[in-house]
Amino acid sequence: MSVSLSTHVLDTGAGRPAAGVRVEVMGPDSAPVAGGETDADGRLRLADELDAGVYTLVFHPPSPFFRRVELEIALDEGHYHVPLLISPYGCASYRGS
Which fold has domain 3-93? Predict the structure, then answer.
C-alpha cells in the first residue's frame, strides 16, 4: 500500500499562510520518517511513499502559546492532507482533501 501525506499551516491570527513552519513525521517507533518547512503559501508535501500505519505529525507553529502541536493519525492507502490552523489562542486540524 502506498500512502502520501501533505499539510498546510494557516496563521488565522494574522490571516495568512504560515511560511517556514517546521513539520516532522514520526513513525510508529517514534523515529523521524519525513519533515521539512512550509513554503511561502504555508504548504508542505511531506511524503509520497509511506507504509500504512499510525504516524505522529509534529508542528512547531508561530504562536507565543502553542510551542509544539502533535497529531497522531492513522493512515491507510491513498493521499492524506492534514492542515493546521493556528492562532495565539487556539489551534485546530482536520482531514483535508
Answer: Immunoglobulin-like (2.60.40)
Per-residue confidence in pLDDT tens, the chain, 97 aa? 689 999 999 999 999 999 999 999 999 899 999 999 999 999 999 999 999 999 999 999 988 899 999 999 999 999 999 999 999 999 999 998 8
Rounded to whole angstroms, the Cα distance separating 37 from 17 reads: 12
User: The whole model's pTM is what?
Assistant: 0.93
Name, in order, each residue with C-beta under 8 angstroms of 43's C-beta and a sequence gap of 6 or more.
6, 7, 8, 17
